[in-house]
Amino acid sequence: MEVEAGSAVERARAGDSDAFRLLVEQHSRSIFRLAFRMTGNEQDAEDVVQETFLRAFKQLDRYEARSSFSTWLFRIASNYSLDLIRMRKRHEDKRERGTDEERDILQNIAMDTPGPDRVVYGAQVRDRVNAALDELSPQERTAFVLRHFEGLSIEEIGATLGTGANATKHSIFRAVQKLRKNLEPVVGHAR
Amino acid sequence: MNHISEEQLVLLYYGESTEAPAIDQHLVECEECRKEFRALQLVLNTVDSAPVPERGPEYGQAVWQRIEKRIGARKRRNFTQWWIWAPAMAALLVTAFLAGRLTHKPLGADVAKNQQQIRERILMVAVGDHLERSQMVLAELSNAPDHKGKLDITDEREMASELLDDNRLYRQTAHSTGDTAVANVLDDLERVLLEIAHSPNEVSNGQLDDLRQQIESRGLLFKVRVMGSQAREQEVAPSTKKDGKKL
User: Fold this and answer.
1) Which residue range is the domain that position B12 belongs to?
2) Given an 8 Å threshold on Cβ–Cβ distance, is A129 in contact with B49?
3) In the list A34, A152, A172, B5, which could disulfide-bond A146, CB 3.0-4.6 Å?
4) What is the rounded distance in angstroms from the CA atom of residue B163 to the CA atom of residue B173?
5) Are residues A97 and A188 in the same domain?
6) Is B244 within the bounds of a domain?
7) Is B46 near chain A, with CB under 8 Å?
8) Of A17, A32, A125, the CB nearest to B71
C-alpha cells in the first residue's frame, strides 16, 4: 500500500491532481479518527481533515520518503489540531464554560456510577473517558493520542511536537496519570 | 529489584521499555507491582471505549469534493504567480465594466438589459476571483500556528498590498452601481487588508492575535466566503438573477 502511496505522491508532486485525489480518498478516514480523538469535536475534526490535505498539497515538496506518507499526514493533522485546541483555549469565556461543563460531567458521573444497568454504566464510562481526555493539556493529549491510538513511537511523536524524547515521555506520563486519577474511581467498579 | 515506577509500567504497556525482561520477571515475583500494572492496564484499555463517529467508505470522495476547488486555486497561486498579472486583469475588467456604463448608446430595452447583465457578470467574475485570493490571505493568518519569537508574514503582507488596489476599484464600482451588499463587504475587507499590508514582515504572537481578532470580530472570513460563493454561482449560472428567479 505504501509503495502505491509513494507512486501517487510522486505523481501528485508532478501536478497530477488525480493522484492527490487518490491520497485524499485513501487517508481521509484515518485522519478524521485522529482529528476527532485530538479535538473531541466532530466539526473541528472535519476542519482538521480538510486543512490537513490543503496543507499537505501545499507542502508536498517538503515530504521526504523517510517516514511513511500517513505518518507525515498525521504530523500535519496533529499540529493543526494542536493549533485549534490552543486557539479554543485562548477564548477565555468559552474555556471557563467548557471547564464548568466538564466538571459537571465528572461530578455527576462520579455520583451516579454504581448503577445496576451495565448499558447505562458503559455509556457513563464513555462520557467519563471523553471528559478525562478533555482535561489533558493540548500537548499531553496529542502525545497520548499519537501513542495510544495511532501507535507512533516516542521518536515520531517527538518529531511531531518538536520535543525531545524525555519531554515526550513526560507528556505521555502526565496524560496517563491524569487519566488514572479521573478514571480509576469509575473503572474500579468493573473489577 | 526495587518496586517498578509508574513510568516504567507505562513504557512496558506501550512496548517502549528497554528493560522489559527484568520488569516481566519482577512482575512474576511481586504481587504489589502486578496489581499496579493491572490497574494501569484496566484504565488504558477503558480509554479505548471512547467512541469515534463513523465515516463510511465514500467519505474520502466527499472530502475531495470539498477541497478540490481550493486545491486548484492554490495550484494556480503556486505555479503561475497570479499576482504578476491579476491586478492588470482586474483593472482591465473593471475598466471594461465602467466603459460600458459610461459610453452606452440608446438601445432597445432588451439589448440594454442584456448588456447590463453581461457587465454585472464581468464584475462578479472579477470580484469572485478577488475574494478567493483575499480568503487565502485571511485563512493563512487565522490558521497560522503559535510560534516562539516572530512569525514571518512577508508573503501575506505583500499579497494584501496587491489586493488593496483591486479592492479599492471593486468597492468604488460596487458603490457606483448601488450594489451595497458587495460594497459593504469590500469596505470591511479593505480595512483589514490595510492593517495586514501595514504590518511588519515579522510579527509577534500578540500582533498576530490582533490581526486575527480584526478578522474574527468582523466575521470577515465568513462574509468573504459567502460572497465568494455567490459570485461563483453567478459565474456558473449567468441566467439566474440574485433573487433566484430565472430570466
Assistant:
1) 6-47
2) yes
3) A152
4) 15
5) yes
6) no
7) yes
8) A17
